[in-house]
Each structure stands twice: as C-alpha cells, then as structure tokens.
Design a protein that fits this description.
Elements (H helix, E strand, L loop, with lengths): L1 H18 L3 E4 L4 H13 L4 E2 L9 E3 L13 E3 L4 H4 L4 E2 L2 H12 L7 E9 L8 E7 L2 H10 L1 E2 L1 H10 L3 E6 L9 E5 L4 E5 L4 H4 L2 H17 L2 E3 L1 E7 L5 E7 L6 H5 L5 H6 L2 E6 L3 E5 L5 E4 L4 E5 L9 H6 L4 E4 L2 E2 L5 E2 L29 E5 L16 E9 L9 E3 L3 H9 L2 E3 L11 E3 L12 H9 L10 E5 L19 H11 L6 E3 L2 E3 L16 H5 L4 H16 L7 H21 L6
Parallel strand pairs: 1-6, 3-19, 4-5, 4-10, 7-9, 9-11, 14-23, 23-27
Antiparallel strand pairs: 2-3, 6-7, 6-8, 10-11, 12-16, 13-14, 13-15, 16-17, 17-23, 18-22, 19-22, 20-21, 24-27, 25-26, 28-29
Bound molecules: oxalic acid (OXD) and manganese (II) ion.
The site of manganese (II) ion has 3 residues, from loops.
C-alpha cells in the first residue's frame, strides 16, 4: 500500500519541484478547510459575499473577461498515433505537448499555494466510480471541486486502496489566452491544463476526466462515458423509468433533469427525480440492462434563462451555499441574470449596468451547487450500482425539419440518429453562436478518441444477452414561419417523455416512417396547453424532401471518418436514405405521359 501511495507522493513532489509553490496543501474536504479557504478568497477579492439575508453562504466570482468559456481550439487530445484522436479532436504529439505545456508550468506557482485535490467521480463505494487527483494553484477551483465531486479524505482512501487515479495538473498561469492549453493524454491517464480558470477548462474532474479521459477508458473496458443528464420519471402506476439524454452544451439538460410536471400530471401522480444534469457513465449489469451513475456530485449550470418559469427547482437550490460566476448583481447584493425578476445594478464585470453594453450577466454565467440542494434530487444518485436506463434520448437545437420526437427502430438505427445529431452553437464555448454544426451524441467537444471508433464502440453493445434501452430523438427548438418556438418546452416536455415511457412499457402505438417511429398527434397529451392551431401536426410531420437532403448530409459528414467508420453505420445510412427515397417515390404525383 505504501508504494501505491508513494506514486501519488512522488508525482506531487515532482510537480512541486517544477512549479515551485510557496506551500503545498492536501485537501481533506472538511468544513474547516473550506471555511478557511473562503475567508482567504473573500479577503483577496476572488469571491464576493452575496446578500447574506437572501443568499446565505453564497459568493460571486468574476473571472478574467477573456476567460469565460471552454476553448475548443486550445484543447488537445495527445495520443501516440494522430489517427487515434480522430478528425474530431485537435491533436499534438504527446512528447511535444508535454514539452510545450511543461514550459508554461515551470515556476508558475511561485508565491502561490499548490492544492492537491483527491476526488472520486461517482459514489465513493461504487464499482462504476473512478478516482483522480487534481493539483491546482486556484482556491476557486478547490471550492468548486468540493461541490462537483466527492473530494477529500474518502477519495484519498480509495486511491490508496486501488492505487489508480487520473493525474490532472492545473494552473491558472497568467490567464493569458496566448499562454493557454488544455491537454489530454488518454494513454497515460493524464491531463494538463494551463492558463484558464473557467469550469470546463479548470475543474478537471468534469469534461477533461469524466468525458475525454473516461470515454477512452470506457472503450477499453466496455462501458460508456457520455454527455448526458439522467432523470427518473415515476408514472402514476408507481413505476420509475430512468432516461439518459444527450444535448449539446446550453441546450437545456439542467432544465430537463429538474423538470416539474405540469399541474395536471402532478395531480395524476407523475413525479420527476434528478440523478444528474451533464454526465452519465453506463455499463451493462448482470441483468443485461445498462446501469448508470452520475459521476458528479454537483451542478455547474448556465444561469441566464434559469427562472421560476423555466426551472423552479434550480432556483430553489440556488438560495444558499452556492458559487455564482460572471452573473450580474442587484443593488442589494443579490445575484441577477437575464430571465429573473428585478433589475441589475452591476454587470458581470462589476460595472454599473448599461444595456448598451449588452446583457448584464455573461451569457455563459454559471452557478455551482451541491446536487443535494436540488429539491428533485434522489438518493438513487448515491446508489453504488447506479440506476437502470429505460431510454436514451438525443436532441439538439434545430429550428426546422427535425420533428418534436421520433424513435429509432433499433439500436443500430439509434447509433445513426446519435451520430447524425446537429445543433446550433451556444455561448458555452468560445466562438460564434447560432451556427449549425454536427455534434454527434453531444460529444463533439468531449470524445477523447476517433469518432469512427466511438461509433463502433456504441454498435458493439448490440449483442446477445443485453437488454438495451430504446433510443429517441427530440427537438424542443423547432420554430414556425413567424420565428417563434412551436413547442412550449420546459415542464411541458414531460408530455413527450410520457409517450416514450408508454413506448417502453409497450402501451403506445406509433406511425412508422422512413426516419423512425413517430407518435400520432393524438398520442401526445396536450390538455391544458395553449398550442397554436396546427402546431402539433407541424411538430410531428416528416418533410421527406428535407430529410432526403439531411440524410445525404449525414452521409457526407460520416464519410469524413473513413476509413474508421464502421461498415454497419454506412449500411444503416444507406438503408434510411433508400427508405426516404422509396417513400418519396410512393407519394410523388403521377406524371402525365
Ligand atoms: C458544460 C458544457 O459546462 O457542456 O457542461 O459546456
Ligand atoms: Mn455539458
């Protein structure tokens, strides 16, 4: 055991020699530790206490204005063979990557404290969980990691027992975009991140470990690490189904995970439980079903748009013990963002609010909070075995063409549907917003290896003995000619989930179309909904001409993954293309001779 521990000790020593901190602090995760850290951060201005009467134990952090989102162009997957990283990742040779980033780390912690954070992704006693250690010079990172992971003594004990951990080295450096890299070495289980304090770049347990490194490990070990929320839905008959759903960043995963049933559903006995809002690790259980854990212990959610109307559960959990990053402030020191009542006095940079300068809160302003504070949080999230998944849902922001919901005909078709996902870009990553891009399974920024191999890995679950979940695709973001959303979304999305659950239970029929199974409009309950006339029919129509173009575009996109693209996916794309062409031919107007 001593020698296992000393692997960690040795690494910490090596990093300290290279980065030269003034002090080293091993995080135990205790209350006393966080209290001391917080007072230090309040003293030096890293954290601003919010109104203690309305928001006890809540703090605001204002980041460097040039450090507000993930930076995909500076994020690298460094595998020995370039091919293994795939066209979906930026690649650098591992030796070159280490040399470049190590040069930045040299002496970077002089005058700073180096924090050693042992953490566990997943319930501490879960066989599905994995541990890591993040070394950082940012106390803000420590405070966030304490909410987002199981951090401290228990994680260290597991690491000591297993001798296994992902190594993550982080420094905020100078917060200079010219001296910034987020590097992953999946073959070594190592992450090095320099020059950013933003969540996705700096809380290394989240995107770097739980998605990029874990997706690589999952492929070696036969499981799945996915960018998915996990939500439990109990129907009036008392049966709970767990659904895992993948949406690109800032497309409403947190809202769906915390959905409050519409009043008529509540009265009938529907109940929604939150297991996770961002990441899902799944593996086949002894019964052949996929069992899932949320590796995280907290939520790092997008604040703007979160309101009593869109996500009352989120609002309720944000009243105490939370960190807000880049939100605006009211005159009496409450956090504020677009979508909330009241008026901002100061914008996210602390300047008196001036609407001419844009929104008061940064569009990617975030909150960090322990998952246990969510009113819909379920103790099932702590179950070491995880929860069984009944359905997998893919979705994106698609203003046109893609119907409200459809079901894939089988797993192979489901993999194609996930692979073909597209969405408009959002403020979660630096770059243009609102541009349509392919984001297979919402993993474009997060898959730690070649997408062709990733799809092959997904297809490999289609084997005897496994009872795989049904696969669906949804689109809450379809717009009418007037540019307004056709579907109200948020809590009303339960109406669509109800159809899925009835499909899972073998109770709901469906209309077979070339793109998959769709509900008849009468199969979606719209009682109490104020939909525009004909909106539901529009939402459930299949525009064959549009889909012919879409499936061709999917084919062209997939072809870029050749020669690693699995043949089964090529055949599946051809099957759907042929089905669309046949349906078009069958419905074409007869041509007069
Ligand atoms: C996130 C993201 O922060 O996807 O979850 O960007
Ligand atoms: Mn995410």
């Amino acid at each position: 055991m001593a020698s296992k521990l000393s692997r960690l000790d040795q690494w910490v020593e090596e990093v300290a020699r290279h980065t030269q901190p003034d002090a080293i602090h091993w995080c135990d995760g205790s209350e006393a530790e966080i209290a001391a850290l917080r007072s230090r951060m309040v003293e030096d201005g890293t954290l601003l206490p919010l109104n203690p009467a309305t928001h006890p134990n809540c703090f605001l952090h204002r980041s460097h204005p040039g450090d507000v989102a993930r930076v995909e162009h500076l994020t690298f997957v460094c595998t020995r063979s370039r091919e293994d990283a795939g066209p979906n990742n930026h690649w650098m040779d591992p030796a070159e990557a280490h040399a470049r980033i190590d040069a930045l780390f040299a002496g970077c912690m002089k005058g700073r404290t180096m924090y050693v954070i042992p953490y566990c992704m997943g319930p501490i006693d879960s066989p599905l969980a994995r541990c890591g250690v993040e070394i950082t010079d940012s106390p803000y990172v420590v405070a966030n990691m304490r909410m987002m992971t199981r951090m401290g003594a228990a994680a260290l004990a597991r690491i000591e027992r297993e001798g296994q951990f992902v190594k993550g080295l982080h420094s905020i450096g100078e917060l200079d975009p010219e001296r910034r890299f987020i590097m992953h070495f999946p073959e070594e289980g190592t992450i090095k991140s320099y020059g950013s304090g933003y969540g996705g770049n700096a809380l290394l347990g989240k995107k770097c470990h739980a998605l990029r490194i874990a997706s690589w490990q999952a492929r070696q070990e036969g499981w799945l690490a996915e960018h998915m929320l996990i939500v439990g839905i109990r129907n009036p008959e008392g049966r709970t189904h767990y659904i895992a759903a993948a949406f690109p960043s800032a497309c409403g995963k947190t809202n769906l995970a915390m959905l409050i049933p519409p009043p008529a559903y509540r009265e009938k006995g529907w109940k929604v439980w939150t297991v996770g809002d961002d990441i899902c690790w799944m593996q086949p259980g002894p019964d052949g079903r996929l069992w899932a854990i949320n590796p995280e212990a907290g939520f790092f959610g997008v604040a703007p748009g979160t309101s009593a109307a869109t996500n009352p559960n989120a609002l309720a959990m944000l009243g105490h013990d939370a960190i807000f990053t880049n939100v605006a402030l009211t005159a009496d020191g409450q956090p504020w963002w677009e979508g909330l009542d009241g008026v901002p006095a100061f914008d996210w940079q602390g300047r008196p609010f001036d609407p001419a300068r844009g929104p008061a809160a940064h569009p990617n302003a975030r909150f960090t909070v322990s998952a246990r504070q969510c009113p819909s949080w379920t103790p099932a999230a702590e179950d070491p075995q995880g929860v069984p998944i009944s359905a997998i849902v893919f979705g994106g922001r698609r203003p046109s063409l893609v119907p409200l919901v459809f079901e894939a005909r089988d797993w192979r078709h489901g993999v194609l549907v996930g692979a073909a996902m597209g969405s408009e870009t959002t403020a979660a990553a630096a770059g243009a917003v609102g541009v349509m891009r392919r984001d297979p399974m919402a993993m474009k920024p997060f898959c730690g290896y070649h997408f062709g191999d990733y799809f092959a890995h997904w297809l490999s679950f289609d084997r005897p003995g496994l009872k795989l979940p049904r696969v669906f695709h949804v689109n809450w973001f379809r717009k009418g000619e007037d540019g307004r959303f056709l579907w109200p979304g948020f809590g009303e999305n339960l109406r669509v989930l109800e159809w899925m659950i009835r499909r899972v239970e073998g109770e709901a029929g469906a209309r077979e179309t070339p793109i998959g199974y769709l509900p008849e409009p009468s199969a979606i309950c719209v009682d109490g909904l104020d939909l525009a006339p004909g909106a539901l029919e529009r939402l459930l129509e299949v525009d064959l001409a549009g889909w012919a173009d879409e499936i061709e575009a999917t084919g062209a996109f997939l072809a870029e993954l050749s020669p690693r693209l699995p043949g089964a996916l090529v055949e599946e794309q051809a099957r759907v293309a042929a089905a669309i062409a046949a349906a078009r031919a069958a419905t074409a107007e007869p041509v007069d001779a």
